[in-house]
Design a protein that fits this description.
By secondary structure, the protein is an alpha/beta fold. The chain has eleven helices and 13 strands. It comes from Arthrobacter sunyaminii.
Length: about 325
């Protein structure tokens, strides 16, 4: 049976609080006045396309990038003033794995633990516990370069837990992983959430946000466009179902005009037409009744991708 790392309980109801948080680079507003609170034990997501300001926000939370203006506290402390104290409570999983390939798998955990001044008597058993949690026990003596992408990602997460952090920051945790590796990683993160770790993650994958996040903010161009649970955002900004139609790239825009009145809303994308309706099959029947024959059709449930499209007029993945 796989063990889950123990996590110390925090006395504070809110572990992260941001008010009118800004980060500018010259005339560019990377983060443009966002506000949010994260209670202890929540899985909180920043959902948006590349360049939306998600990673910049994470760097400010982690105390590695100072804010331009606004208020920010992590565990009740200002990370600009108390960076080392804040980072002592954090585990950080960066976008790109930065493991030491000169060290073996278990040695990566031991070496990282020494940065926190942790004693060897603690680090040995803790490293073994984390390797078991990451399903890497049989790779403990192996070289990092021999690991698959999914294994390296799990090792990076295990390394971030060496100091028993109260908050785990995950920046695009599954980018570049195949579907099986993503699902294994989701399972590990869900176990951490069950154990009481507060998860803060950035992603541009709608399915990942729906799977992992209790609550999220939709971010675009440094601003928060909407906030809520995945289900609540879908209910508020989309319909129950979506009918996807493909008539061919040269015909989609032309045919879209002939679809008016079907469903509650129509979106025309370069490769398909989306009809938003509570009953997708009924919408498809209405399309056929007008003598229109799409090359392909698909009825699916609404997703966070549809929420983002409604709020911004563009796809999450540009």
């Amino acid at each position: 049976m796989t063990s889950v790392p123990t996590v110390p309980k925090t006395a504070s109801a809110t572990v992260i609080s941001a008010r009118n948080l800004r980060k500018t680079y010259g005339d560019f507003n990377a983060v443009d006045g966002i506000s949010f609170d994260v209670p202890a034990g929540e899985s909180f997501g920043l959902l948006g396309p590349n360049g939306a300001g998600k990673s910049t926000t994470m760097k400010m939370i982690g105390g590695v990038s100072s804010r331009t203006s606004g208020d920010l506290t992590v565990m009740g402390l200002d990370p600009d003033r108390f960076g080392p104290e804040v980072r002592a409570h954090l585990g950080v999983v960066p976008q790109q794995d930065n493991l030491d390939e000169d060290l073996r798998v278990r040695e990566n955990l031991l070496a990282y633990g020494r940065y926190f001044g942790l004693p060897k008597s603690y680090l040995g058993p803790k490293a073994d516990e984390l390797l078991e949690f990451a399903q890497l026990t049989d790779k403990a003596k192996g070289r990092v370069e021999s690991l698959s992408g999914g294994m390296k990602r799990r090792l990076t997460i295990a390394r971030s837990l060496i100091n028993d952090p109260k908050i785990l920051l995950l920046d695009e945790p599954t980018t570049g992983l195949d579907p099986q590796a993503r699902h294994i990683l989701w399972d590990r993160l869900f176990r951490l959430k069950e154990a009481g770790v507060t998860l803060i993650l950035t992603t541009h994958y709608m399915d990942e946000a729906e799977q992992l996040c209790d609550r999220l903010v939709v971010v675009d161009k440094g601003k928060i466009m909407a906030e809520g649970s995945p289900a609540a955002l879908i209910r508020e900004h989309s319909t129950r179902e979506v009918l996807e139609l493909r008539f061919g790239s040269e015909r989609n825009t032309t045919v879209a005009g002939e679809l008016q009145g079907i469903g509650s809303r129509i979106e025309t994308l370069p490769d398909r037409v989306l009809i938003y309706a509570d009953d997708g099959e009924a919408a498809l029947e209405a399309v056929s009744a007008r003598g229109l024959q799409p090359i392909t059709s698909l009825v699916r449930r609404s997703s966070l991708e549809d929420v983002f499209l409604r709020l911004t007029g563009r796809s999450l993945i540009d």
